[in-house]
Design a protein that fits this description.
By secondary structure, this protein is mainly alpha-helical. 68% of the residues lie in helices and 0% in strands. The protein starts with 11 loop residues before the first helix and ends in a 5-residue tail after the last helix. It is found in: Membrane. InterPro entries: Tetraspanin/Peripherin, Tetraspanin_animals, Tetraspanin_EC2_sf.
Length: 238
């Protein structure tokens, strides 16, 4: 008896492989989402709500990654079982996901200039008002101390940002210990502003560079996943 060929039989292995790529793209989005979520949370503590879009985009990336993994598995099942209904559901669902991914990538790229223009003044004012000191337990001061130590910088623009701030009025110091190149030295006394003692440059431009990198990484992840996911859709129908 001759073997009966269905419209999907010759494409079954190819579709299974392509849907595997969709699932892998979903896993990549999940990874980017986790990184964007925690990285965005840290930046939001320092730069304020103007960078909160990275946190929300990370959450969206995480959700869409999970959806893509599920759709990849469902598409593989539909191709294996030659289920037209399952494939149709996956196609319609993936179209929605693709639109969301392209939209999210566009929003991330559009919001970056807003961070650059708005965050500087907001971060400067907030630092002068809310920063308390090196050993203070509040989250804001802790995050800033970590930023200044890791990025080897001082203040938003430079160390003079602390002049006249609530920190100086409370402690009498010109800058916090986080600005020092060697925190444990005697020269790090909060008054010696020598280039050999403290970092002269501010942190804003370095933070902005990190924000730009995260924005482009998330956008690239969304667009890359969209390209991978759109390829199998065009081959689901013979």
């Amino acid at each position: 008896m001759a073997e009966i060929h269905t419209p999907y039989s010759s494409l079954k292995k190819l579709l299974s492989l392509l849907n595997g790529f969709v699932a892998v793209s979903g896993i990549i989005l999940v990874s980017l989402g986790i990184g964007g979520k925690y990285g965005g949370a840290s930046l939001t503590n320092v730069l304020g709500l103007s960078s909160a879009y990275l946190l929300h985009t990370g959450n969206l990336c995480l959700v869409m990654g999970c959806i893509a993994v599920l759709l990849g598995c469902a598409g593989w099942y539909g191709a294996t079982k030659e289920s037209r209904g399952m494939l149709l559901f996956c196609i319609l669902s993936m179209v929605i996901v693709l639109i969301m991914e392209v939209t999210a990538a566009t929003v991330v790229l559009l919001f970056f200039p807003i961070v650059r223009d708005v965050a500087l003044e907001h971060t400067f004012v907030t630092l002068r008002k809310n920063y308390r000191g090196y050993n203070e337990p509040d989250d804001y001061s802790t995050q800033w101390n970590l930023v200044m130590e890791k990025l080897k910088c001082c203040g938003v623009n430079n160390y003079t940002d602390f002049s006249g701030s609530s920190f100086e009025m409370t402690t009498g110091h010109t800058y916090p210990r986080g600005c020092c190149k060697s925190i444990g030295t005697v020269a790090c006394d909060g008054r010696n502003v020598s280039t050999n003692v403290i970092h002269q440059k501010g942190c804003f431009h370095k933070l902005l560079k990190i924000t730009k990198t995260q924005s482009f990484t998330l956008s690239g992840g969304f667009l890359g996943a969209a390209v991978i996911q759109s390829f199998p859709r065009s081959r689901w129908w013979p």
